[in-house]
Amino acid sequence: MTPPSGELVKQPKQERSRQSFDRAVEAAMSLMVERRSGAITVAEVAARSGVSTGSIYARVASKEDLIRVAHVRLMDRLAIETRHALSLEVAPHESLVDLVGRAVRAMAELLRRHAQELAPFMRLAHGDPVIAAGGKKAHEDMVTAFATALLSAGGAITRPDPQVAVTWSCTVVYSVLARQLGLGSDPEAAMDQPWDELLAVLVEMVAAYLAPV
Question: Which fold has domain 5-63?
Fold first, then answer.
């Protein structure tokens, strides 16, 4: 389980100190986004944020913990946005295809909006079990929200085990979107398919799988 950011940080008592540390975390994130990796130093974070290295080390034990704090904060934001974006239910007279379309597009836009922030952490996760655990939890939450939305279609899903079917569908959609957005370990392996065409194919594929003719 990913520790809350509070367990990684010696909490400052003064508001001014909290604001300074927030600037340091934001600076760490911006450097990671620019480099698409965790190849940053505390000195660089200090220079960008205007917070001394001593003040940063007074709050976290290492650069790795600073990066983990940034990751926890991103995962917290992503969890809130996931719940909001995928809080979907089938509307009266809505077809399964239309519901699938709303769910796929909601997930796609969520991932695309945060792709630059997610990319460096997905690479770091291979060697950092704390970041890996946080990413796994966020992925599981997204799968659950996506599955819950599609299961609201009820009898329109004709696969023998709807829960397994919608979970598998989410896994496939997520994997394709992650590849398209370059969120794997090798950014050069990113797909280059027109975005709207890709989403249309995913919607058609998932709808056909959930309710085969």
Answer: Arc Repressor Mutant, subunit A (1.10.10)
